[in-house]
Design a protein that fits this description.
The chain is built from six helices and seven strands, in the order E-H-E-H-E-E-H-E-E-H-E-H-H. The protein is α/β, with parallel strands linked by helices and 211 residues long. The protein has a single domain, classed as Maf protein. Strands 1, 2, 3, 4, 5, 6 and 7 form a seven-stranded mixed β-sheet that branches. The longest helix has 20 residues. It binds thymidine-5'-triphosphate. The site of thymidine-5'-triphosphate has 25 residues, from helix 1, strand 3 and helix 5.
């Protein structure tokens, strides 16, 4: 391998890209993986998140290594699953999905499992799963209607995005905020730098100096 190792983000999520860049890790390429995300029969939420993150990284690398420039890269993927006990909530695609999720989450605590999986240039795969516990306030009919109208739930696990309007629904969070948004930064940083990937030199946080 010559030069600085490259980093491929195996994701189409703009939130994952923004989180990675927030800590000075700028991917050299984005190579989202398209895999079947349907849970297996009786699959637990934590196991599902891990399996999907592992599969996304592998699928992305299978495509990436065909390109000379990305052959010796690190591949990084993640998956977020929202669960009530063993019940896995859908990634909301329709208004009905989102309505069902909000109804289930209102006034209750749930768990968010985000798995991050990395494959090193030599082909070693390492993964971590981060569990967070999130408590929602009780949502009135009006609040639900207005949130549904915002469409911020679209494509989000459990039908909400903590980084948006739904941030005001959260009574308590125990775990990792960045994991709930989609990429646990502590674990991601440790996985990558632990295998020798350097944080971008000369990188400056754009929020530096903003108080
Ligand atoms: C709970 C929650 C989820 N989400 C998002 C994170 C993920 O993008 C999405 C769950 O779907 P995922 O299947 O984890 O990811 P994705 O399909 O959006 O992106 P990719 O597989 O290409 O990486 O829900 C939020 O943005 N905020 C939240 O508060």
């Amino acid at each position: 391998m010559t030069g600085r190792p490259k980093l491929v983000l195996s994701s189409a999520s703009p939130r994952r890209l923004a989180l990675l860049e927030q800590i000075g890790l700028r991917p050299d390429a984005l190579l989202p993986a398209s895999i079947d995300e349907e849970p297996l029969r009786f699959e637990r939420p934590r196991a599902l998140a891990e399996r999907l993150a592992v599969e996304k990284a592998q699928a992305s690398r299978t495509v990436g290594i065909q390109d000379e420039a990305l052959r010796d890269a690190f591949y990084l993927a993640a998956d977020t699953v929202v669960a009530l006990g063993r019940r896995i909530l859908p990634k909301a695609e329709t208004l009905e999905d989102a309505e069902e999720c909000l109804g289930l989450l209102s006034g209750r605590a749930h768990r968010v499992y985000t798995a991050v999986s990395m494959i090193t240039p030599s082909g070693k795969q390492r993964s971590r799963v981060v569990e967070s516990r999130v408590r929602f306030k009780h949502l009135s009919h009006r609040e639900m209607e207005s949130y549904l109208a915002s469409r911020e739930w679209e494509g989000k696990a459990g039908g909400y995005a903590i980084q948006g309007i739904a941030g005001s629904f959260i009574v308590r969070l125990v775990g990792s905020y960045t994991a709930v948004v989609g990429l646990p930064l502590y674990e991601t940083h440790n996985l990558l730098t632990g295998e020798g990937l350097q944080v971008h030199e000369g990188w400056r946080n754009p929020l530096e100096g903003v108080s």
